[in-house]
Specification:
- It is a single chain.
- The protein contains five helices and seven strands.
- The protein is α+β, with helices and mostly antiparallel strands.
- β2 and β3 form a beta hairpin.
- Keywords: Nucleotide-binding.
- This is GHMP kinase C-terminal domain-containing protein.
- It comes from Hemiselmis andersenii.
- Residues 62-134 form the GHMP kinase C-terminal domain.
């Protein structure tokens, strides 16, 4: 998984192994948003929906290959993978409707953050707005927190809390 802060970090394990990425990712051209329904996704339920036995590894994409592709080519739907997305959608089905509505309206990259329920969305169109994309869809946009357009912030290591 990735988070975007003082440069960019690559997280593995349960998110506890954090490795900086050089050079840090920059804000992609276009608009970048986050959408958060009022409901949350209990982390235990989401992980339980993975159906893994103790010690069993997740099948799927090699995280290091995804990281390398993201560093080389930037953010795209093909490199934004979250193994917890489907299990979270089982807990809160509206997350799937949010993703579908955003993708259908032209957001090129849409992904659940962590175990939910925040979704981030990127469109190459600077005027794209998830509030417009979700209006009239099978989700209640009035009950959601929408923030954007956003940009990545990069700071030197150790300088986040200095004046």
């Amino acid at each position: 998984s990735f988070f975007f802060s003082g440069g960019t970090a690559f997280c593995t394990g349960r998110g506890e192994v954090v490795t900086g990425i050089e050079p840090p990712l920059t804000t992609p051209e276009g608009s970048f948003w986050i959408v958060k329904p009022q409901e949350g996704c209990p982390t235990g339920k989401v992980y339980g929906n993975l159906g893994l036995k103790p010690g069993e590894e997740l099948p799927g994409e090699d995280p290091e290959k995804l990281r390398d592709a993201m560093v080389k080519d930037g953010i795209s739907q093909s490199v934004c993978v979250n193994d917890l997305e489907k299990p979270a959608q089982m807990v809160l089905p509206k997350l799937e409707r949010i993703k579908e509505a955003l993708r259908e309206s032209g957001f090129s990259t849409v992904l659940l953050s962590g175990s939910g329920a925040t979704t981030f969305a990127h469109s190459k169109d600077k005027s794209a707005d998830p509030r417009v994309a979700l209006k009239g869809k099978d989700v209640d946009i009035e009950d959601m927190y929408v923030a954007g357009p956003l940009s990545f912030v990069t700071r030197q290591e150790g300088s986040w809390y200095s004046k």
